[in-house]
Amino acid sequence: MSPDHWHLTEDIDAFLARAGDFLRSRPALHTTPLTTLDRLRRRGADAYGGEATVLGRLEAGGEVRALFYRPPTHRLTLTPLSPEEADRLAAHLAGLGHHLSGVTADHDTATAFAEAWQRHAGATPTAGWWGRLHRLGTLTPPEPLPDGRGRLVAARDHEQLVRWCAEFLTAVGETPAVDAGSWADSRFAEKHFTFWETPDGTPVSMAGSTSMIGGMIRVDPVYTPAHLRGRGYAGAVTVEVSRAALTAGATDVVLFTNPANPTSNALYRRIGYDPVADFTGYDFSCDNAGD
Predict the structure, then answer these.
(1) What are phi and psi of 134, to 5 degrees?
(2) Is residue 291 a part of any domain in this protein?
(3) Are 205 and 223 in contact (CB under 8 A)?
(4) Which of 11, 94, 211, 227 is deepest in the core (most CB within 10 A)?
(5) Is residue 3 scored above 70 in pLDDT?
C-alpha cells in the first residue's frame, strides 16, 4: 500500500465526515481519538492555542483503514497499523518534512512506527508512557462498599476539584500541572466528576468521565489522596461513575490503568473491567526532520 493512500488535511469537519464511521466502528479501542477529535471539532484551533492540527487517514478500497492526528505539540497519535503500514507512513511524513516529538498508539503500532521513524528521520525513540486499556463487562460492585455515598461535583467543590486534579497529575508524572488559571484549557474542564463522600459529607475520592461519543464513555481520572487509600473509596466511586455511564446508554465504558500498578489493575478487574490492549508512548530525540 503506497503512501499516496494517506490523505492529509487540517479540515477537521471534512476529516470526520470521512473518518467518523471508522472511529465509531471500534469505540473502545478508538477512545482517545474519539474524544480528542471531538474536542478539536467543537473548539477548532482554539483547542491548541490557535495552531492547526494535521490529520491523516489511510484509505484502501474506498474505506478508511487507519488514521492519525498530530497537534501543535508534534506528538503523533495513531490507530492500529501493520509494521509495513507504519514504515510507509514514517517514510511519507519524513519525506514531507514533518517534525515529530513522539508517538502514542497500541504497543505494536507505536513500536513499529518508532523504529521506522528512527530509520527515516534519524530520531532516537525512548519509551516514556505505558497504559492498559480496559472495557467494562459486567459491573460488579465490591462488597462491602465503604460507608458513604457518591454525589456529583457541584460549583462549590471547584477549588477542591482543581487541587485534586493537580495532585493526580503529579502522582502519575504528567506535566504541566493544572491550576485555577489553566483549568479552562485543561483536559479536565469538559469532564463530569463524582465525589465519594463519607457519611459526614467529607469528600474522600473522585472519578471523572467524558461525555458519550459513539456510545463510548471513558472513566478518567480516578484519584484518592494518598492518606485515604486502601479503604475502598476508589472502587466505590468508579462503580458510581460506571453505573451512571451505563444508565446514560453507553455501550462501551472504558478506562486506562498503568500496567505496572498491580493494585489498580486488580481493583478494576474485580469490578468488571477486562483488558483490551496495551498502549505505549515514545519520545523522539535527535530528530533531523524539518518543519
Answers:
(1) -125, 145
(2) no
(3) yes
(4) 94
(5) no
